[in-house]
Specification:
With 475 residues, this protein is of the alpha/beta class. 30% of the residues lie in helices and 18% in strands. An 8-stranded parallel sheet has the order 8-7-6-5-4-3-10-9. Strands 1-15-18-13-12 form a 5-stranded mixed sheet. A 5-stranded antiparallel sheet has the order 2-11-14-17-16, with no helix packed on it. Strand 3, helix 2 and strand 4 form a beta-alpha-beta unit. Helix 6 crosses helix 8. The protein is globular and about 75 Å long.
Amino acid sequence: MIKTTSNMLKIFSIVGFFALSGCWQKPTSTQYITDNQGRALILHGINSSSSAKHSEGHLPWITEADVEQEAVEWGFNFVRFLIFWDGIEPERGVFDESYLDAVEERVNWYTSRGVHVMLDMHQDVYGHKVDGNGAPEWATELSLMDNFALTFPDDLPWWISYIDPQVVAAFLNFWGYSNYQYLQDHYIQSWQKVAERFKDNPGVIGYDMMNEPYPGDLLSAITFTFEETRLKDFYDRLIPAIREIDNDKWIFYEPQSLGINFGFASKLPPIDDVREGDKRLVYAPHSYPLTLHEGVPYNLTDKLNMRDWNRNRVKELNSHKVPMIVGEFGGSDHVKGFRDYLNDTLNMFDMMGSGWAYWSNDPGGWGLLDEDRKETPKVDHLVRPYPRAIAGQPIAFSFDFDTKIFSLEFAEKDGVIGPTEIHLPDRHYPNGWRISSSDPQGRWSYDWDAHRQILSLTSDPEMATHFITVSSISE
């Protein structure tokens, strides 16, 4: 590895950032999740896992060896770990400690390897009683719709089930707090059980309150009044209840999924945190361009979806003033242009200063491994250089997949200690890499952990800003 210093690096870095930014916008004042040293965390990771939705025991397929691959070989520092209400409270008022034991065992596989775990209370199409996942049967109130289930052709998208009258009734009754208060009350109690179990685990970074909230009725979805009323009220009940148990972890909140996943604007108002001091809330939307999601080749419609998604999320971040983690995005390698989409999307997330979790780690389908457990082409894009922890205030960072140039700009910030950590995957630098800094020669240094592929950088505290560039060494 080669170390250099150059006064021209500031110019090179700025040019590189503009070249990669394209049409993407960034928040006026980006917020970041921070660790106990005050460093800004950039979280790159994966969902674990889709298989847990329908598996016996509501657990992902992974073994500890798979976690080792994700953390060390791929360099991920984040996992969105799926948990389920019907796993936690299978009977009304009865909480399954053995399920939480099994979850905790797998969570510890991640945390023991330095991976930050976000626990995601997952649901799709409400619950198993209506052919979805998430809610227990006893918490599925169908009103007069018990005998009105629809059967859809197998070739239709799974999410078409959201218009099934039984699914509509189940969601409407869950959100109808005045008539079915016990549903949300028990959901909240289940979250308190989870918080009690994991509040003292430093590797668990936080809690995602509900996956892809859906209102039930299409009218309040397409007018977004659901977000302004029932969803906001739900978060205002759930956050204080979690804070009764755990005052420190980050709480992740999502807008409604319909429309917003595709790029529409959210009307969810800023959310309050009742904890003393700075709030620890994270905005956690998902990103799925509509036509690409359904297997259509990457096209202008998707690019316009992404442009709108970027601009609307920036407006929301400027209003909410919280960090953002993209909880889901993904697709199939078999879709024409998918890797171009992936490169564009990852560059957009970098430009916005956002972390992310790819959907998902299951072999086959959209996964990073195929059915034979061999890497799919998307791995080279997802496993990319990034600043895992920044000892200061991030200004910009980027990676050019073609040139293999990684750039980082950050400012000194009072109270931050520890080194800046940069993941530099061997797959992008087979002949080694060269690092340059704008700091004066002899006033900066680094250590290299070859096993974990992590560079730990110590910068000159007398310099207001730092410009770091990593490039590939040719054969």
